[in-house]
Amino acid sequence: MGLLLTDIVDALGGSLEGAAPGLRIEGIAPLDSAGPAELSFLNNQRYQAQLAQSRAACVIVAPALRAQALERGAAIVTDEPYLYFARLTQLWARAQGQAAQPGIHPSAVVHPDAQVDASASIGPLCVVEQGAVIGAQTVLASRVSVGARCRIGARCIIHPGVVIGADGFGFAPHQGEWVKIAQLGAVRIGDDVEIGANTCIDRGALDDTVIEDGVKLDNLIQIAHNVHIGRHTAMAGCSAVAGSTHIGAHCQIAGAASIIGHLRIADHVHVSTNTVVTHSINRPGHYTGVFPMDDNAQWEKNAATLRQLYRLRERVKALEHLCKNTTPPRPQ
Amino acid sequence: MGLLLTDIVDALGGSLEGAAPGLRIEGIAPLDSAGPAELSFLNNQRYQAQLAQSRAACVIVAPALRAQALERGAAIVTDEPYLYFARLTQLWARAQGQAAQPGIHPSAVVHPDAQVDASASIGPLCVVEQGAVIGAQTVLASRVSVGARCRIGARCIIHPGVVIGADGFGFAPHQGEWVKIAQLGAVRIGDDVEIGANTCIDRGALDDTVIEDGVKLDNLIQIAHNVHIGRHTAMAGCSAVAGSTHIGAHCQIAGAASIIGHLRIADHVHVSTNTVVTHSINRPGHYTGVFPMDDNAQWEKNAATLRQLYRLRERVKALEHLCKNTTPPRPQ
Amino acid sequence: MGLLLTDIVDALGGSLEGAAPGLRIEGIAPLDSAGPAELSFLNNQRYQAQLAQSRAACVIVAPALRAQALERGAAIVTDEPYLYFARLTQLWARAQGQAAQPGIHPSAVVHPDAQVDASASIGPLCVVEQGAVIGAQTVLASRVSVGARCRIGARCIIHPGVVIGADGFGFAPHQGEWVKIAQLGAVRIGDDVEIGANTCIDRGALDDTVIEDGVKLDNLIQIAHNVHIGRHTAMAGCSAVAGSTHIGAHCQIAGAASIIGHLRIADHVHVSTNTVVTHSINRPGHYTGVFPMDDNAQWEKNAATLRQLYRLRERVKALEHLCKNTTPPRPQ
Question: What family, per the record (chains A, B, C) (predicted)?
Fold first, then answer.
């Protein structure tokens, strides 16, 4: 249990200052709750005031806060404290033995014609179907389904309940009924992708659905058939993308946002929470469409007016016309 | 099959009146569809008109409706008919042998270092990981995943597909990519909590995600890392709470509502369906933010105007200015 | 691998013209990406310009485009090219051996008192509980849960992670806590229903939840207790229906739309994406309620104004009153 501060710095770099020799850390905690055997970090200048009061054994800080941090005790000085913290959590997890073990859990159902890299970890009660490919060091946590012919790259993390390669939602209408379009494509997932619990990525109708390298998807996300998500785009929980939409690289899609089908979203687009994207976005930027929350009684009055908004504009137009005609001549 | 009315009253209390001796009930049904061997209830005065027409063998009513109920047949008189009905459904389910049996289904994968109370029921194809704790009389239905070190209290009901303790969605940005923040916390769930199908509760980044006693979560809900939900709060299906938000006790969050991260919601707050909570709520009350539905053509006109709403306000302001200046002097 | 064009026409009908004898197709692809051994189709007149450029071996077209198609090569002429394409994908999937095999996968947990038709396919790690009924040729993909006494008709396709028959979300309030209403009903699903990955359909409280013949549900949909969905209605991903709502036949509910509880929706109603249906809909039509997305800065100005919309209307009303009184008499 725990790590020596010196071992942390040996592994992750940074400059350890003001620490007693042999100081051992027993946990990582936020500044305001860290105890005297815990390591903390200060990322945001806004929390600077918490620094002096923190009981943490040591604080990870940027060079600008070095002096202030040392006044209260030990510090690890590094250019990017938040990045350092991220790497520290990974080191900590490994030290606590929390890394997934390579191999296929005996309760998993892996088709003999699937290809699973020997360094991958297939957790309990996963299903990997015929022709699926799972890359090196990829982890399927538990109860993950990977459909036939779907491919997952290296170093991916797939959380419980994820469904990769269910049929896309495609039907031809015929005499008031729906005739199924068999979904003949698959899903292709790049390297270093993380997919949150119970998220669904459908297989393509003819071509594949594609998730590029470094994409991060949160829980309960819906990715429809033939969607393409560019490198290092991140999508938060409960967001959804309808069929054949192409999302660029380095986008951020906030929680419960929806993007309708057959659109193109440029790189570096940021969509706010619960926003519905109904047309293509050609330029980087931050886009929003959320009804502002209010006290229910206020909302009712505003919402009732909203239903007549077009008429309100017509009334304003009529007033403008009227006033123009009635404005007295300006003094010459 | 069935229960004697006298056995029901022996178990649940209330006063049975007007019933023939030995009357046996073969089902529970709403007033308007109950048959002559079924027990019904009248909770809402609005449905009082249905009472006279009901064919039910017996009706559960409040004292105020006793006389009216007895005119048509047997009645169980009790102060809280709806509560009585709830307890009756539980009695009925037990009588039909629908209660889960204690023990671990042989197809479940339970880590040898997990602690499962002997009275708990772990259903088929569940996964309980290392160090997890499952309390007395708690039921994991089927295909539930409980991650390492997560704790579930007593008398909880966890429905199929639930994922407790997947990683929270945390990354540090670095040169256009995302560096994973290993999620070192766990999930702590109190007693008497019910969690609906395919709902996800992520483990905390450093501290735990906490669900207090008596919380009820419906299906397909997303609870992000380090969220805290207070006692007896109920959340309906498809709602979502982003990271580190603290929801008070006795709140009601309606379906598909979203609460963004790092907020505080007071006790006794009611959030309407599909409302997006974007700032903390300090006072009990009812809060709403929903775009009113309309015929599509009407909506298009109003929505187009909404996109120019700020300009419309400016136009009104200009008119006000103009009219003030052009108003004729009032008669003296 | 592949199919002869003549075999396709023998199986599906249509008129094959301009094809070299023995022409074999090795894939199906969209017009713009099809290679010289692939079969394509032209459904929408909009894509007519792509026809001349397409490298496809053969194109499925309507009679009106026959001449134009034959100028570039082989064609299958049929009255409904998109329907033909749908049937072709099914033929293709069967020819590739992608059809599910009848029988119960050894890893599935099927209660001895469940009834599974011999022609049904129960995939890996599914759970079928006591008294459940699975009809002829129905496919449960993998990791599907079907609760006690729930019934699924013939020729249904149930994708991974689906939960049918979890408890509805019903509680009686009592002294600030929630008393569970045991859910005594079940779920009844008709024939030819398809249900997408991780979708949840709750059992009814007293009566059953009902999904009629031919209904198509996409992924991550929430169907609450006692909902009734009429024949051939289709619902797209992440949509949700709250308790006891009755949806008619032939409706289309777009993605992430919500319908609150205890409503009635007529037949042939189309609800737009992300629309919240808060009252019953008695007439066929197209209904919408979506906040229009905008550049974030624009949105902020409009949203701030929206919060004062009622007041803005009052200001317009005051101006109208003022202007009426100040309007100069018209020239006689």
Answer: Belongs to the transferase hexapeptide repeat family. LpxD subfamily.
